[in-house]
Amino acid sequence: MLFSSNILALIPILPLALAAPTERSDADVEAAPLLPDGLPFPSPEQLQKIEQDAHGTLPGLPLPITNISTTGTSNLQLLAFQEFVEVAFFHELVGNITRNVEGYGFATDVDREFALRSLQTIIAQEQVHALTANDALGHFGIKPIEPCQYNFPVTTLNDAIELATTFTSHSIATLQDISERFAASGDAALVRVATSIVGNKGSQHGWLRVFQDKYPSELPTMTTSDVNLAFTWAQSFALPGSCPNIRDIKLRTFLPLEIVTRPEARTHKIRISWTHGPDDKKDDLLWLAYTNQLNVPIVVPVQVIACDGVKSTAVATLPYDEFLLNGLTVAAVVNRRGPFANAAAVAQSTVYGPAMFIIE
Fold first, then answer.
1. What's the gap between Cα 256 and its chain centre?
2. Is the pLDDT of residue 134 over 80?
3. Are strands 350-359 and 327-334 parallel, antiparallel or unpaired?
């Protein structure tokens, strides 16, 4: 299946900066995709269908009877929040293919049928992931996360697969952080759930890459990330004001960052931009931090070349050759030079971000 010869997926974060979203319009709500099969609260019959389509069941291993930590609660809430985004995305994609929307065509009917069967399985598996996280929250007496209304910035099949590849790669990155936080917070029994989902995401990711005529495995060790960066990233697809209980998730939300220049597999300058918040100090010194693979984050100076009082544009070096920045890179503008030990340390100093790109 040769649908795209692109070797780079560049998906800058969309402009959403507040954890307390503003009201949405009726037109936005009507345009937003609804989740299938009764999510987030399927009936027993709907759950049976989900499990059949997913080729497997919700986890049946018993959870601990002790209380969960605050960190563990945030992990499960974020996992449910992210998974609902993915369910909505793939559900919308299948709808576009099924209705023969312009830009979502295939070379042959055989390719189309195989893609639909694969995507419908992925939808069901993402539903199982979301329900698993919410069921665990319920086990500990915590209110389940409810889905938002969503909007995805894609208009063609190739755009959709590139975006899916990027957010699946970042889901793997986030689940690394979730697993470590579970273990460090005394919630080790939940690590197995997170790592099992990582394996599933890896399978999906390989299929999405082959779909684009890329080799299946992106990196020897996948890029890692931070739960706060992931929370901001997931919100970029939600219509403001449409998330019923987003305030229950006690994670940070950052101001948006856009990468203007498409990064390439060479050392070069890239252009970035951001819109200032009301409390920004526009003359502060800033740096750009790159998190790639399982390496110490790379920090480079940011040179502001334009600022109109609302939006700033800057340039920064992408040191590809020195650090072999292949695969997913998570970029964030930070307010100190570092050095940073890991992605969590980057998130603690993040002002704008994240923006993400994949280089082959």
1. 14
2. yes
3. antiparallel
Lowest mean pLDDT among 2-11, 25-34, 338-347: 2-11
CATH class of the 44-60+67-248 domain in this structure: mainly alpha
Q: Which fold does the domain 257-359 belong to in CATH?
A: Immunoglobulin-like (2.60.40)
- For residue 270, report the phi and psi dihedrals to the nearest 5 degrees: -120, 155
Pick from 21-25, 63-67, 283-287, 327-331 the range whose average pLDDT is largest. 327-331
Q: Which two tokens stand for residue 201?
A: 């995401």
Percentage of the chain lying above the pLDDT 70 cut: 89
Q: Residues 351-357: what's their mean pLDDT?
A: 97
Helix (H/G/I), strand (E/B), else coil: 239: coil
Strands (E), the chain: 8-11, 257-259, 268-275, 287-292, 298-301, 303-307, 311-318, 327-334, 350-359
Token pair of 122 as six digits: 């992925």
How far, in Å, CA of 168 to CA of 9, rounded?
Answer: 12
